[in-house]
User: Which sequence fits this backbone?
């Protein structure tokens, strides 16, 4: 019996493209929180928000603005997640929405 040959093209697989919601951004477009911390991806953002004191959270999310939603929309180009973040001024809700998004992106 002859050995079965496989083509080199079939053996090499292209790596899956990284989903934009899971990417890390460079510090020049990272999110600098008022406590001095830097977020470079959405998971880091969720962790940072979770640990933020309430007054620091309110510095970024209040009746006038939502810095987190703006960053998500304009840096990560995720308007649907940004829309969900703009609907609430609650710190825990922000964390939940971001983590839901990250988990969905992992699937």
Assistant:
């Amino acid at each position: 019996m002859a050995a079965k040959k496989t083509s080199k093209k079939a053996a090499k697989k292209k790596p899956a493209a990284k989903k934009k919601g899971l990417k890390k951004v460079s510090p020049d477009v990272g999110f600098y929180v008022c406590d001095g911390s830097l977020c470079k991806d959405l998971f880091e953002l969720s962790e940072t928000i979770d640990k933020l004191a309430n007054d620091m959270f309110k510095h970024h999310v209040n009746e006038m603005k939502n810095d987190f939603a703006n960053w998500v929309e304009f840096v990560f180009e995720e308007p649907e997640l940004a829309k969900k973040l703009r609907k609430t001024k609650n710190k825990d809700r922000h964390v939940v929405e971001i983590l839901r998004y990250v988990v969905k992106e992992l699937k």
